[in-house]
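Bug: token stream looks shifted between consecutive jobs. Job 1:
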Amino acid sequence: MEIVYVYVKKRSKFGKQCNFSDRQAELNIDIPPNPELAKQFVERNPVDTGIQCSTSMSEHEANTERFEMETRGVNHIEGGWPKDVNPLELEQTIRFRKKVEKDENYINTIMQLGSIMEHCIKQNNAIDIYQEYFDDEDAVEVMEEAPSAKTINVFRDPQEIKRPATHISWHPDGNRKLAVAYSCLNFQRAPEGMSNESYIWDLGEKQRGPVAREG
């Protein structure tokens, strides 16, 4: 979409020519200085001001070169079939393929593309992915036993009213200490007298017992 706005202005609308004449000086107003107001100002020295060296114009316009644009699109469904061949009809496509395969240009094109493909295939075959590079390496024995787990120790809540553990945190300097926090999972239904203490278990000193933390 091209955006254009055209307007016409008469020369008389620009204003009339200035015609100056000499006359005596005329005093329109005389305001004496006010010392009180002068105290509120400071003389600025030096003074910086900007100037423009371009030519002054009464009117200026600029119009860039018109650039024509066009939008095109292609709907590609299947292959480059001619107009008289329906790609949805299997018999028509087979008949057209047989006709093209007998053309000499088709054979030459296939031979040319085949050489390029052969070069790429040879690049992939340059490395034997089945070669054994480390013959002296001992074979890893495969464990045929089923995986299993066993319980080493059980840490129970020392309180009389048992609480489920809601958070477990290991000590950052090692796996010797374990902090466990307990709470009631039923919202606002905690039993009366239930403790809110958390415990720190020392795995190296099992007989010593946990250290309680209020929170």
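Job 2, same session, no restart:
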Amino acid sequence: MKTALALTAAAGLLLFTVSTGFADDSRYSPWQGQVQTGDMTELLKNLRALTDQAEQDKAADPEFLADLRSMASEYEDRARWPTRLLYDNFSDGNLTGKPTWTIVAGDWRVATNSSGTNALTSRVRKYGSYSSTSSTSNGTDIVAAVLAAVLARQNGTTTSTQQTQDAPASILVPVAISDQFSIRIEMASRESRGQFNYGVYAGQNGERSYQLAYLPGGANGLSLSRVTPQGSQLLATSAGAINLEDNQLHVIEWKRGLSGKMTVALDGQTVIEATDVGSRKPFTGFMMVNSGGNFAIQSVAINGTAK
């Protein structure tokens, strides 16, 4: 009984401490608040300990304990990555507001679906010989080449190249991103082909980048890579194929914390874990590349540590 009461008190204190609560990004305006991490970290630690004890003693309803664990995880993310760096749900119907996106190549447009919700969409015909049997590293190398060409052209260090309907479609937004970050996107894949990459980059020509790739129909549906001037290095992949072509919206959460530890969760389930310390410096932008697919992005949210 005492454990259950302590749990209730801790949960109430947590809700009071961070009054912003669980704001749904698709319903509320971007959250700009700061979280004091000292007391919050200790409170979350105590809440988890109480939850574990209550589960062991069978002192509370299992569903209640599951809700507490979920709540603790949500607030833990707020404490680790307290600063909102970028948010867009494309509700304004354009790409020129805040944030301001740059379409580098291909077709990107804001479209309204049957339910009246806006999303950023991109459709590209099959890119060369690229298919679901292609290696993920080759796909990331394509993105690395695209990123280098994109930024070099923006910086005026190379001549423009001819674009075709088959070439990868790319879009980016310059934004300061800390080396520890949390990226959450809501997306749908409309056709089982091509590849969708997104990630952070840095350097005049994008010399450093982390990329997360979705390969419809691939043996490993999601893959995480680090891109450098020397090429791309595959860090980890999900186990088995992933199907996002089910006419549903899916949430992908990619987090990078202390010591380069990264996790990727699909619809709340962790599918990738990796550690890489190849980059410890902040990043200068966020990019997305569509290589031969048909994708819709309903929202992008990036949080980081204090600037």
